[in-house]
Amino acid sequence: MSLRKMLTLKGIRYILYIAEFIALISAVYSFKRSAPIQQKTLPLYFLFIVFAEYVGRYFDNARLLDYTRNWYAYFVIPIEFLFFYWFLWRHFAGQKTRLWIAVGSVLFMLSLVMEWLVFYDTTTTFISLSYTMGNLILLIFILMYFNGLVHSKRILNFTNELEFWICSGLLLFYLCTFPFFGLYNYFLEKFPDEFRTYYVVMLLLNILMYAIFSFGMIWTRRK
């Protein structure tokens, strides 16, 4: 990779870190004591994300690549998925829907354990099985949210609902990057040049997701 491309990639990563930090500030700014518990925990979630990126950068700078991979694959990413499962579980009032979310969470955790015990390979750059499972389950829950939204009176004021903005950001990122992460190792090995392009697109989608989060938190607080 050329120096120019490395600097560009590094610059985009810094923009992502800034976007994550802005999301943290927005969550603190929009905090309401009267808000549902899932909304009140957003500042803690974004604080965790900022902390996780700091630790990940430390491992990268120290060239501890196995630590970086395991940190994200078996700690950060599972917490991200489980948090949003719980976030939507808290949003849904129906016991049947909550049961499906609980089942999905268990399936994701089982895929994570199976991946660790059966498919773990220290030579693999990205561990795709549990991520693909977690991504698919989250997308199903997000579509359940939008289905409930369009069939309710809440659709008349959907922009005032914080869950709409959270789910919109999640849908944009996880749906658009689903093929990329599912075939991450294949693309990296067989098509390295195209991989770099897709990787940059993934970072830009990540930035956009956090921008949607921040906008939604500020917008709904003003409303």
User: What percent of residues are in strands?
Assistant: under 5%
SSE topology string:
HHHHHHHHHH
Give the CA-CA distance, first to last residue.
47 Å
Helix content: over 70%
Shape: globular
Q: Which stretches are poorly predicted, pLDDT < 50 over at least 5 residues?
A: none
Beta strand count: 0
> Major sheet, described briefly?
none
- What value does the average pLDDT take? 90
Radius of gyration: 18 Å
Quick take:
The protein is mostly helical and 223 residues long. Helix content is 83%, strand content 0%.
Topology:
Blueprint: H1 3-29, H2 37-40, H3 42-61, H4 65-91, H5 95-119, H6 128-150, H7 162-176, H8 178-182, H9 184-190, H10 192-222
Question: What are the defining features of this structure?
Answer:
223 residues; mainly alpha
Structural features, described:
This protein has one domain. It contains 10 helices and no strands. It has helices at residues 3-29, 37-40, 42-61, 65-91, 95-119, 128-150, 162-176, 178-182, 184-190, 192-222. By secondary structure, the chain is an all-alpha fold. The chain starts with a helix and ends with a helix.
